[in-house]
Give the backbone structure.
Amino acid sequence: MIQTMILQKNNTICVQTFFCILLLLLPVLCVDAERDEATVAGNWTFEDGTATDTSKNSINGEFVGNPKAVEGIVGKALQFDGESHGINIPDTPLINTGGPYTDRTIAAFFKCHDISINQKQMIFQEGGATRGLCLYVYDGEVYVGGWNRAQYNWDGAWMSERIRSNRWHHVAVVIRDAADKVENDKLEMWLDGKLVGKEAGGQLYAHTNNTSIGYVTQKTIYHDGIEDLSNVGWFGGIIDEVIVYNSAFDNADFTKIAQPLSVEPEGKYTTTWGYLKGKWTK
Ligand SMILES: [Ca+2]
Ligand SMILES: [Ca+2]
């Protein structure tokens, strides 16, 4: 009888200890950020007025024309004239010549001078007509797209959201846990720290066509199916803090990364959401 009571007491202590340990571990278990620094490909902050990659990988960009160093949303940024300024990013297995890439995050802050002009304005693009990813402004909206028209034949998906001229936005495209087939909800668009939508997609295979910021080089594909060649899609405005990772950022990551928008003056950030409309195209 006494032994049984001691046994029960020990069991109770064991259970209490177990829950105490669980409580201590909860903050660790609940961390849901998916940003993995080990997967960084490039990080272009433009702090010194050049397109030097500040990640350990040194994927340094080269100017096309003469982008100008200006005040950005995080330190310095680069201003593009909408006609002849851009940045070429060299080939690297971390972005385009390796793969297949099952997880990818490309993100940037941008402030477009005039979102209404009849011209696509490229923020970032990689790949060409067969495989690629792109983020651009056109007709009042910002778009992201992805495609892999070989191997398993992903025709591509594009999403868009309304934005404003002359104000900072943060846009990102994500490939999340994709495979060698088209599956639902593998391509994501994020704007100003919020998820805009998800579309079907798959992993991205190696693609040798060039990567660029601020304009298109060696083709891209837009939401309207148009394939664009080189030296087009010039961006007019400021681009800052461009990053490419081979991990899929999540809500906590984007909330944190888009934080500089919340200190923008004139309450612009809060009023933006009145403009939002769910619109995207396949
Ligand atoms: Ca910067
Ligand atoms: Ca290209």
User: Anything to note?
Assistant: The chain has two domains: 1-31, 37-281. Residues 45-47, 72, 74-77, 240-241 surround calcium ion (ligand 1) (CB under 6 Å).
